[in-house]
Amino acid sequence: MSLSVEKDGTSEEDWIPASVPGTVHQALLDANRIPDPFQGTNENEIQWIGERDWLYRCSFTLIDDVQAAEHVVLQFEGLDTYATVWLNGMEIARSTNMFVPLHVEVTNLLHPGQNELLINFESALRLGQALEAQHGKHVSWNGDSSRLYVRKAQYHYGWDWGPVLLTAGPWRTISLLAYKSRIVDVLSQTEVSPDLESALLSVTTDIELGGTDPANVSCSVSVYDSQNTLVGEQELPGTALELLPDHGQYRLQAKLQLVQPQLWWPRGYGAQPLYRLVVTLHDEQGSPLDQREVRTGLRRLELSQHPFSDQPGNSFFFTINNTPIFCGGANWIPADSLTTRISPERYRAWVQLAADANMAMLRVWGGGIYEEDVFYDACDELGILVWQDFMFACGMYPALDWFQASVRAEAEAAIGRLHHHPSIALWCGNNEDYMVASSQGHYDAAFEGDFTAIQFSARELYERVLPEVCARLDPSRPYWRGSPYGGTNGNNPEVGDQHVWDVWHGFMRKYQDYSSLGGRFISEFGMQATPGRSTIEAFSSAEERYPLSRTLEHHNKASDGSRRLAVYLSDTVRNPADLDSYIYATQLVQSEALCSGIRGWRRQWQGLGKEYIGGALVWQINDCWPVTSWAMVDYYLRPKPAYYSVRRELAPIAVGLATHDKQHAAVWAINATRQPLDVHLALQWWTLEGELIDEQDHAYTLAPNQATELQTAPFATTTGHVLSARLLQEDQVLARATIWPEPFKYLTLPEPGIHVERLGPDTLSLQTQRPAKGVWLTAEDGVKWSDNMLDLLPGESYIVKAEGLKDDSVVHVDWLRA
C-alpha cells in the first residue's frame, strides 16, 4: 500500500530502530529484515532497497538551556543523498548532495516539550535516472551511468571491486546547537619560510554575534606546540571585526609569526609534531562565549615539476621541508560498503598498516567519500601524506548550473573541514575522467572556451570551479586537475601522474614489463589476488569453496577478473587444482607483480635533477567487502603476501636485482635516508639443489635519498641458478633480494627442506637446505608478522617476529612447489 509521507510519518506500523549515523541497510540488517549482503550472492537479493524511499523519524525533548537560547541550529553533517526534512510538520531543508552539511536555524520552530523530526530519503537511483533522461546519458566506466548526475559516493553503484549497495540515511551526525554568539568557522594557513627558520600562521575566523555589539566582544588566537607550550598569541578587540554583508556574520583576521618551528615530516624523514590552534570569543567581561580548537602541523610543501636535461618531459614529485620525497604507497577506497560501520579503531588500524609497510602516501580515491576526521588525524600522527581526490570517478560528468553550484558547496565543505591537516599534500580534481574523455575523442587540451558547450563539459569543474575554491580557501596547497593528468594527454608518461594499466587491463602486458611502462609518478597500478582461506570461508558455503565457484566469481567484481587472473597464472606458475593452491598462486603472482613495479620505478629516483619517477601507489591497500581484488590487505585487515613484499621494497634501505640482458643481472640499491651509507654487497649464486656455485663481496657508498647503480652480475635464466644479493653493515643484513629463472612454471623445484625453530614466545628462526621461493607463514588470526613471503636460501637463519603467537600455535609453512 502506498502512503503519503505525512501519513507514513505519523503511522505506527512497521518502524524499526535505526542508528545515527547509519544507513538503511545497516538498520535492516540489525533488525534481521535482510540477509547479510556480504554472504554468498545475497547482494543480488536486496537490490530493491536502493529502488525505494525511506523514512527516518525521531522525537526529542528540549532541555531548558536549549529552550532558553537566543539561537538554535539543527545540524545535519551528512544526509545520503536526496532528503527532505520536516520539523514539527514544517519542511525545513532539502539535501541533494551527501557531501554538503546542512545547518538550519530552528529557533522559532521548536516546541516546549516534545518535538518531531522526520526525514524522507528518496531513491538516488530513481532520481538520478530521471535526471539522466532529462539531460542526456553520459559515458561512464563502472556502475549505472545515472550516478554521474548524483552527488553520492560513486562506489555505492558498484565498482570492479565492490558490490552494488545503494545506501540511504543520515550517514553523519545530527545535532542541535544552541548559542547566543558563536565561532562559525576557523580557516588556518601556514607558510614556512624557505630557510625553515620561521613560520607564518594566518587565521581567518568567521563569527556570528546575533544582536551583540561587536564593541562588546573580543577574540584571542593562541598557538601551542607539541609540548603544549604557548608559542604565539594575539588578542583582538571586537572593533577589528569586519562585517560580511552577504552572511550577516563578522570576520576576523590574525597573523602569528613563529620562530624555530617544529617541522612536520613524512614518515621516515623526521618527527610529526602537531600544534594546537585555539580561537576563543570573549564577552566584555572576558568570559568565553565560544571556542574552536584546530590541530595542525608546520611543513613547507611543494609539487616539483621541472624539465629534465637528459629525458623528455617534466618531473612530478613532492618536496617537504626542502627535501624531495619518493612517495611509495597505495590507493585508499572506503573501508566498508556500509561506510558508517568503520569505527575509529578500524580507521587507525588501517592507517597503521600503511605506516608499518613503509608507505609515505595514501591516495584517497575519487569514487568514495571525503573520509572521517580520524583517518586524517591518523595520517597526521603517523606521517602519511595524503593525495586527496575530489569525489568524481570514471565518467564524463555534467556541468549544468545547478550541478556546478552543488560541487562548489561540496568543495568548500571538504576544504573547510580538512585543510588544516599537514598530511594532505594535494587536492586532485577527479579519478580517470580525462582518460574517459580521451578514450571517446572528447579531450582537446588546446580548447579554452566555454567548457559547458562541449562534450567534456566537466572541464568547467576541474579547470575553473575546483581550482577557484582551492585557491580561495587553501592557496598554499597544490591543486592537480585529475589523476591521471598530463596536459595534452589523459595519461601522459612524460608529464604529470600516470595510471599504469597495460598490465592487467589494456594489452595485459607481462608484469615483468612494469619498469619500461613507468611515467613521472605512478598513481595507480596493480594485480588481483584472492583473499586468504579464512576470509573466503567467511562469505562462502562449504560446497562453494573451490576455484571459480559461483560464489567466488560473484566475489570478484571485475567483469572478466577470473579470465585475466587465469592468464597471469598460466604465464607464471603451473595450473593450481584445489582452492588452497589457487589462493597461494594468485597471491604469489600479485606479490611478484607489485614488487616488480615498485622495484623498477624506485630505481628511477636517482637524485637531484634525475627524479625520473617520483612515486608509486599500488592499487589498492584495502577492500570495502570480502572479495578477490587488487587489495594488499583484505576486508578483515588480513594482509595478503604482497603486503610484506611491498613493505620490503619500500624499506628505507633496499637492494634491487633485474635481468640486464640474457647473461647478466643489474644490481642497485636504495638509500632513502638523508645521510650517505657505507655498505657491503654480498652476492651468491645457488643451484636449485642447494649448491653454492660462487660468491662475491664488494664495498659501496650509497648516496642519500636516491638509488645508486652498483654493478652487473653474471646471471643466465637458462642455467636454473638463483642469484642472491644482500646489503650488510658488518654482520647486520640491511636488505635482501633474489632473482630466479622465470617463468616459475618451467622450474623443477626439489623439496627445500625448510626448518622452523621457535627461539622464544614470539620469535622464529627459519632455515632451508635448498632455495625456497615465496615462503608463506600462517597461524591463527591476530598474529602480527615482522616479515613474511620470503625467499629463503641455504646457509642463513631468517629471524621472524610473530607478535601474538600462542604457546600452542601451529605455524603453517607454504612455498612455491613444483
TrEMBL record:
Mannosidase Ig/CBM-like domain sequence ranges: 665-746
Top EC category: hydrolase
Coiled coil ranges: none
Domain Glycoside hydrolase family 2 immunoglobulin-like beta-sandwich: 182-299
Main subcellular location: secreted
Catalytic activity: Hydrolysis of terminal, non-reducing beta-D-mannose residues in beta-D-mannosides
Subcellular location: Secreted
InterPro entries: Beta-gal/glucu_dom_sf (IPR036156), Beta-mannosidase-like_N2 (IPR054593), Beta-mannosidase_GH2 (IPR050887), Beta-mannosidase_Ig (IPR041625), Galactose-bd-like_sf (IPR008979), GH (IPR017853), Ig-like_fold (IPR013783), Ig-like_GH2 (IPR006102)
Keywords noted in UniProt: Glycoprotein, Glycosidase, Hydrolase, Secreted
GO biological process, one term: carbohydrate metabolic process
EC number: 3.2.1.25
Listed GO CC annotations: extracellular region
Boundaries of every Beta-mannosidase Ig-fold domain copy: 750-803
Subunit structure as annotated in this protein's UniProt entry: Homodimer.
Family from the record: Belongs to the glycosyl hydrolase 2 family. Beta-mannosidase B subfamily.
Name of the protein in its database record: Beta-mannosidase B
Organism whose genome encodes this protein: Ktedonobacter racemifer DSM 44963
